[in-house]
Write a structure and sequence with these properties.
5 helices, 3 domains, 70% helix, 135 residues, mainly alpha
Length: 135
């Protein structure tokens, strides 16, 4: 029995030694992890708008205003085009049917264009719209 008691004692001492080594290793590891991670304090900051940012914001606002003006002018030009002339062939055809330089009566225009194909009538009316002869 003495042999068994001594064997158990040796095994317990070996297990204790292993546990002590493991605890030291865990302590070292925990210390290393804490050193690496540490605690992060809450970071707060206020952001100041610099002079350059203010300049850029002003330029952006100016460009947006200019874009709005250009869009408004483009919309007006669609309704009231700049071109106020019509091709010579169209003017000759209208003159041949007794339609003058002034505003064109739509019924008279339809009668004058009666001999043309649908595509040609649309083209002539589009040219007259661009020239401002009809509305």
């Amino acid at each position: 029995m003495e042999n068994i008691g001594q064997e158990l004692t040796e095994r317990l001492e070996a297990a204790t030694t292993l546990l002590e080594k493991t605890l030291r290793w865990l302590d070292e590891r925990a210390t290393a992890v804490n050193a690496l991670s540490g605690e992060v304090e809450k970071i707060s900051a206020t952001v100041e708008q610099t002079r350059r940012e203010t300049e850029l914001a002003d330029k952006l606002a100016a460009v947006e205003r200019e874009l709005a003006e250009v869009k408004a002018a483009a919309a007006q030009n669609v309704l009231n085009p700049l071109r106020r002339t019509m091709p010579a062939a169209t003017a000759e055809m209208l003159t041949k049917h007794g339609i003058g330089d002034g505003p064109v009566d739509v019924r008279t225009l339809d009668a004058a264009l009666n001999g043309l194909s649908l595509e040609q009538r649309i083209a002539v009316k589009t040219q007259l719209l661009r020239a401002g002869a009809i509305s």
